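[job 4471] stage=fold_predict status=RUNNING
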Amino acid sequence: MNAGAKSADAEILWFLHADSQLPECADELIRDALATSGRCWGFFEVRLSGSRLMLRIVERMMSWRSRLSGIASGDQGLFVTRDWFDQIDGFPRIALMEDIGISRKLKNLGRPVCVSQKLVTSSRRWEKNGMLRTILLMWKLRLLYWLGVHPDRLVHMYYGRGD
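[job 4471] inference complete, writing structure tokens
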């Protein structure tokens, strides 16, 4: 992601998972959100692609958590001005939790803006591994990261579950 940002020639950088679907006019939504809020980074509310009711609850909790904490995940399509990205030296160079790491660095400079139009992201992992199991795994990984466990160790927990 840092290499992509380095080669990009844009004032706003947007980092998006490959399995995400964009809302209509997403680029305009980002520019408008940054301009009207006066903020320099943000994310989208998320909609998980599956149809199960529990996915609606999970996606609402994800958006609520990010709005409250100011920490967003890659599923939410992080965007940032080039100036702020350069100021924090980009993404941390770690194997997992880089989205949480960059959010934390950006939050130290200012709160994010949340675009209310939803970015649709794959619910494959949730459906394949089970809702409760995936929720517990995600919270465990976040907790361990916050407690200082090196991301290389967390990679084995995350990918060892199957994908």
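[job 4471] summary: The domain at 2-122 is CATH 3.90.550.10 (Spore Coat Polysaccharide Biosynthesis Protein SpsA; Chain A).
[job 4471] exit 0
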